[in-house]
Amino acid sequence: MQNKNHSIIRKTSTIKLLALCIISLGFYWYIWLWKLITDVNKLYPKKHIRRRFWFAGLIILNILSIYMHFKSIQTKYIINLAEICWLFIQLMLALQILKNIESYVKNEFDIKIKHNVLGWLFFGCFYINYKINRLPDNIKKEVERKIKKLKG
Predict the structure, then answer these.
(1) pTM for the whole thing?
(2) For 125-152, how does the pLDDT look when each residue is reduced to its tens digit (9 = 90+)?
(3) Among 115, 116, 109, which Cα is nearest to 137's?
(4) Whether 140 contacts 7, CB under 8 Å
(5) Domain limits at 141?
């Protein structure tokens, strides 16, 4: 489950992630998010994210939203409530992932990571991917050292 750089959290180019999500009509996002939560849970098991509950809610709301579109229910209202709920749940999950990564870095390396609230609000999980790809080099080196220690 580790990538070729032997780091615990997979790194994916944000542009690649966005392109794959568009090409797969959003299915790749769920796969990427499931793997990300797996990595974060391995990294920081103190605050285990219960992904089955999060994903059940997200998938049910997504299916409900699609159903509403096909039945033209959303045209009777100004907003599609299923999409609003999906967005809210997705943002709360993204916030929990960010907080777990932040707690891990603070506990292990005594480094405080600052987050951009607007980045989180507007880009959600894509912002998380951006932050993971930009972890300071000393943190990445320390994580790789711990992996080698665990393997050897």
Answers:
(1) 0.72
(2) 888 888 888 776 657 666 677 777 777 6
(3) 109
(4) yes
(5) 14-151
